[in-house]
Amino acid sequence: MADLPGRVRAGRAEPPVRVTGVTTLPDRRLLLVHAHPDDETIGTGSTMAHYAAAGAHVTLVTCTLGEEGEIHVPELAQLAAAEADQLGGYRIGELAAACAALGVTDHRFLGGAGRYRDSGMMGLATNEHPRAFWQADLDEAAGHLVEIMREIRPQVLITYDENGFYGHPDHIQAHRVAMRAVELAAAEGFAPAKVYWTAMPLSVLEAGMTEFTESADNPFVGIEDVAELPFGTPDEQIAARIDATDQHAAKQAAMRAHATQIPHNSWLYAIAGNFGAEFIGVEYYTLAVGEKGPGSGPYAWEDDLFAGLPDVGPDRAPVTAAGLR
């Protein structure tokens, strides 16, 4: 498919060309806000690949370079924050390769690459770094995201819940920034019509614990009850289930692109190989803003994040501040 204005081919050296008008983009436009490179793949990779393959414009915004991440490639150990401190730059390339695998051609770093630094895990001294995303001024950071919203006019936005899914400070901050940006954009009349938060149904977690019981790579070892996990959503609170099992291979390829963060023997690959159709190819969301569209099953889960929205391009009715909750 030929480039559209504003799309960025993964791996290109030249700066991205911004769109001059939203009418140049497809009717369906999806914006994702993630904290670090690899978060997009692990949490929403199948969804991104699904909508990109279907012709939607998928924009990924990553808030940091992931400078404080672990390194699972021994020959790259010297890139660590405590050594050469070059991991963030290296991960830009990993993210570009992952986006290419997912078919996503529009990727941005919030405020530009390196504007905000990976804060590390909660409670570490790295939380206090002057460029740590955890320390970012909320309105300033949200303002960067509003500019992207103004350009792309996405109907749907995906980010994390209030706890950042599992409590990482950068995930929590990404949530705060995204939701503040939605408020600011709503005041101007161009906020996304729907905002989803990533989620994992308790029934899926319970099935995973059962599946891994006898596995040497059991990620649930020592956990007796899903209630002990820092994440997990009751099934009745889930709003959408995106079945992208046909994009299973794309998500696996994107995972392999993040080699410094996902070791080759990770339990994620065990999932992908044994029962990936359900645990890798299917992703779940709660609905934080907007009206739920038609769904199916016992809880009427949507199978399309655009459910209930008219595909009418830029002339759609905007969300106003009153529509937020």
What does this structure look like?
It is a single chain. With 325 residues, this protein is an alpha/beta fold. 30% of the residues lie in helices and 12% in strands. It has helices spanning 39-53, 87-102, 138-152, 169-188, 202-211, 248-257, 267-279; strands at 29-34, 57-62, 106-109, 156-159, 194-199, 240-243, 282-289. Strands 3-2-1-4-5-7-6 form a 7-stranded mixed β-sheet, with helices on both faces. β2, α2 (87-102) and β3 form a beta-alpha-beta unit. α1 runs antiparallel to α6, α2 (87-102) packs antiparallel against α6 (248-257) and α3 (138-152) packs across α4 (169-188). The chain is globular, with a radius of gyration of 19 Å. The protein starts with 28 loop residues before the first strand and ends in a 36-residue tail after the last strand. Keywords: Hydrolase, Metal-binding, Zinc.
The count of helical stretches stands at 7
Spatial extent as radius of gyration: 19 Å
Give the structural class: alpha/beta
Helicity, as a percent range = 25-40%
Largest sheet: 7 strands, mixed
CATH class: Alpha Beta
CATH topology: Rossmann fold
Give the strand tally. Answer: 7
Q: What's the pLDDT, averaged over the residues?
A: 86
Order of helices and strands: EHEHEHEHEHEHHE
